[in-house]
Amino acid sequence: MSGLIPSRFIDDLLSRIDILDVVEPRVKLRKTGKNYSGLCPFHQEKSPSFTVQPEKQFYYCFGCGAGGNALGFVMNFESLDFVDAVEMLAKSIGLDVPREDSGQNKQTDMRHAALLRLLDDISSFYQLQLRQHPQRQRAVGYLKKRGLSGEIARDFGLGYAPQGWDNVLKAFGSDKEKQKLLLEAGMLIENPDNQRNSLYDRFRDRIMYPIRDSRGRVIGFGGRVLGDDKPKYLNSPETPVFRKGEELYGLYEARKKLRNPERFLVVEGYMDVIALAQNGIHYSVATLGTATSASHLRVLFKLVPEVVFCFDGDNAGREAAWRAVQQTLPLMEDGRSARFLFLPEGQDPDTQVRSIGAAAFEASLGKATGLADFFFDTLSARTDLSSLEGKAQLSKLAQPLLEKLPKGIYRQLMFDQLGQLTGVRVGSPSPAAPQATPPESPQPAAERQSFGRPPIRSSRPRVEWSPCMRMVHLLIRKPDIIAAVPIPDDLGEIRSDDMDLLLKVIEIAQAWPDSNTGELMSRIYATSYGSQLTELFGKELITPTAGMLEEFKDILQRLLAQYHARKARHSMMEQLRQLHPQAEPGAPGQPSDTQVVK
Question: Per mean pLDDT, which range of 87-101, 115-129, 403-417 is the poorest?
Fold first, then answer.
């Protein structure tokens, strides 16, 4: 397929891929503190120098200097180019890779950036109305009645959309182009039958809940009505930056509060998430008016080994839980856990935690029903296990669902449980044989071929930190440097082996100033300079994060000072040549280069 892969898709792909899931099937790793280490797959070694950092989503080898993100690892390990590596990673999580022409790609990225800036400004506008609008007491009173503090309202960015048809329209829609952007962001509704007032605000007289993506950017809103309007809760529509089936309310806030959560609790409403956080339970998230999807679960299982679903105990709640089971089964790799907590009738997490307290609520999570028990209890209730026909029916219902489980011990145990219930050993495809792993000594080339590529013997020297390479490294590690440091035009006049790479990284960082490290790296990988990135991670920078900006400025100033000194010296030598055209610099009676510099 022709066309470029949109950078926003690469950003999304890297946010959904865990580098451990990419590396572990190919390299034997062991946990060493917060990181993982093993024998480097890119050169032969006897002691491990290859490290994976899940927190930063990086890998690097102290032995040969190979390093990068999940995309770079696949490119190097599988000997793939950028496009094929993206295709492989996308296929591994069930995504199709879109394509655009270069002009469309750039234009789309700029449009997305404009939408995100607008939504962030509107979120600030709603928060200001909650503090200052003459009608704010209705909204403040509602929040206090629900037991929310000012601190929790601040943490979740709660706001107020006042009564009226055009508050947002007046504040942000001063011309046709801005009105078009508001429509695209889902903040306005168009009524073509009313020519005079065809546009009006989507959210009116509602408590506003900003919906943030994993990077904290506002991508949409949920609104809870204060009056009698319907619906009671209203979400932003699908937009170019907001896809309901892929986002989870409260995930950004949870990750900001908890560095290493052990589990996530999936609930149904905004207020459930906020009320739980108010009571010290900061690991809950909510779907956005949709059922729990495989995309939701991939994101959660990337972060934690256990997911607990919280539903009402009525028939509707159990049907929702069963739908969640079907989405969860294909992702139940060994070591993962899914549980189901069913609340008493008429209760939700908000009312329950306020009724019994946070400690008792958390204790109930530990007693929640496991996926296996809920699975077999639900299906057994549909059959009569006292009869042969009922046992056969159970096997017929269960087996196609169990086939969705990933190969492994858990899959085999689930089939064994089905066999115990039916009294018949149910045929299950045997679990996948353990992946061959590198032994503790260098392998012959023939054995290394089983990993899909021949061994790589690194012949390149350790990285020499030229000023340009160090600036590249600093910029990749801390991309927001680009917004804090003006880059003078004459930097591009400096001739250096590494200057072209530095200029390309600066160009990409300036074009996408909100990129994080992984996103910046992925965009560089898409250029002809991508292969040079692996040379940047052979050594750890000793500069602490807080000092990276100052070091970048210092190197930039020294580079420019040296360049201007050379330029001034060259100009002086040219003037001397013009004054003494018959003499060469350094000839008797003429000043030499050294004398001129002195």
Answer: 87-101
Query: What does the pLDDT read at residue 405?
Result: 93
Give Cα 93 distance to the centre of its chain: 14
Sign of the C-alpha dihedral, residues 26, 30, 36, 40? Answer: negative
**Residue 451 pLDDT greater than 60, yes or no:** no
48, 71, 73, 40: which is closest to 456 by C-alpha?
40
Domain boundaries, the chain: 7-92, 102-242, 255-381, 467-579
pLDDT at 463 over 80: no
pLDDT of residue 426: 67
Q: Does CATH number 3.90.980.10 belong to domain 102-242?
A: yes
Residue with tokens 């409403």: 269
At residue 275, the pLDDT reads 94
Q: What is the dihedral of CA 253, 258, 260, 265, to 10 degrees?
A: -60
Helices assigned H by DSSP within 230-381: 251-257, 270-278, 294-303, 315-328, 349-356, 358-366, 371-380
Of how many residues is the chain composed? Answer: 598
Better pLDDT: 349 or 244: 349
Q: Is the confidence at residue 470, as pLDDT, over 50?
A: yes
Checking if the pLDDT of 11 tops 60, the result is yes
Q: What's the 3-state SS for 498-560?
A: CHHHHHHHHHHHHHCCCCCHHHHHHHHHCCCCHHHHHHHHCCCCCCCHHHHHHHHHHHHHHHH
Given a contact cutoff of 8 angstroms between Cβ atoms, the answer to whether 222 and 211 are in contact is: yes
The model's pTM is 0.62
Percentage, residues of the chain above pLDDT 70: 83
Note the CATH number of domain 467-579.
Answer: 1.10.860.10
Closest Cα to residue 142, out of 129, 126, 130, 155? 130
When the candidates are 3.40.50.1010, 3.40.1360.10, 1.10.3720.10, 3.30.160.150, the CATH number that belongs to 255-381 is 3.40.1360.10
Nearest one of 185, 189, 188, 172 to 113, comparing CA atoms: 185
